[in-house]
Design a protein that fits this description.
CATH class: Mainly Beta
Radius of gyration: 19 Å
Helix content: 10-25%
Largest sheet: 4 strands, mixed
Number of domains: 1
Amino acid sequence: MDDFASFIEKQMNSFFGDALFDDFIHKELVPLSHLKERHSSWVLEIDLPLVDRKNIEITSSDDHLTVKAKLTKTFCVSRGSIVTEFDYFKKTIKLPSGINTKQISAKFKNGILKITMPKPTNGKKIPIE
């Protein structure tokens, strides 16, 4: 049965791409999130239930932000006779343009991670004729 499941997975990946089964292969869940634009910043809120603050890792590159969080207990999903266990949440977003990654801050409270990304303050005022 393992060979058949592996064959089906390969066929599905060739048709849909590797991302379809990524969560199951890496045992990572994609958490719910919401990106809001404010006057002076962007705010990303991510739901991370069953996570301790010490088990959250946030990394940024020039244009992406990745949050990875280890669950305090394994979360299981059953599909027929197959049970998949998840150990992590992982979310990657493309950063809004112009964000200075050195000014990003984060707070974690009551299972919600709030990441604040200040908008650039330098700009040129354009006169109106």
